[in-house]
Known about the structure:
Blueprint: E1 3-8, H1 15-28, E2 33-37, H2 45-54, H3 64-77, H4 79-88, E3 91-95, H5 98-109, H6 111-128, E4 136-141, H7 144-153, H8 171-186, E5 193-197, E6 199-200, E7 203-204, H9 207-217
Parallel strand pairs: 1-3, 1-4, 2-3, 4-5
Antiparallel strand pairs: 6-7
Bound molecules: adenosine-5'-triphosphate and the ligand Cc1cn([C@H]2C[C@H](O)[C@@H](COP(=O)(O)O)O2)c(=O)[nH]c1=O.
Amino acid sequence: xxxxxxxxxxxxxxxxxxxxxxxxxxxxxxxxxxxxxxxxxxxxxxxxxxxxxxxxxxxxxxxxxxxxxxxxxxxxxxxxxxxxxxxxxxxxxxxxxxxxxxxxxxxxxxxxxxxxxxxxxxxxxxxxxxxxxxxxxxxxxxxxxxxxxxxxxxxxxxxxxxxxxxxxxxxxxxxxxxxxxxxxxxxxxxxxxxxxxxxxxxxxxxxxxxxxxxxxxx
Length: 218
Ligand SMILES: Nc1ncnc2c1ncn2[C@@H]1O[C@H](COP(=O)(O)OP(=O)(O)OP(=O)(O)O)[C@@H](O)[C@H]1O
Ligand SMILES: Cc1cn([C@H]2C[C@H](O)[C@@H](COP(=O)(O)O)O2)c(=O)[nH]c1=O
């Protein structure tokens, strides 16, 4: 079975660019690799609902636990495809995975309740749903002001025409998400972690430099 390498971090930190660059670099070195991102907008029942939630189009309140179950369900619905990708390739690069759920939904509650929800998500997704653990997770550390500029540069999203979706618009949430990632990385929750500094001197490092550093950790 191929290795899972997860690229993680707050919104707009350059995960998708790094994931695609890593996949291309692995392929250039002769290894078979593919990128798989979550959520699966428009492809799963949960993914459709998540898109509507992030676009602010759901007319019902969504508790952090309900949102966590939606994101977990999205991965459960895509579990066969994930396992097939592992069977077909040496490396599957994940653009967000279970740690995103822990960091974001835990951040909605904060404190002890947030930490308890993170543990609950880990038990649900890895324990109950038997989703595979990543071989390695990389946390992309990008200053929040740069990340906000990068969000504005993003191409049109499939699920919203807004510049910032519901989670991206909530700056306090984004700050707590960063704190949760630091907790997850420090405790190696879900598996081993490495931090990759994505900026230098107030600007983004070139994608090739970021990918080079990721490769040095693999
Ligand atoms: N290292 C980089 N240097 C310059 N621009 C970058 C870099 N990485 C990403 N970008 C640009 O920033 C924008 C956001 O990048 P990307 O989609 O990779 O971020 P993301 O973390 O996957 O975002 P999201 O969490 O919102 O899905 C894109 O327009 C991308 O081209
Ligand atoms: C996979 C996953 C994602 N989220 C959050 C993180 C983002 O704010 C959005 C969608 O991600 P995108 O990269 O901007 O497309 O959803 C989450 O809370 N739980 C998850 O499992």
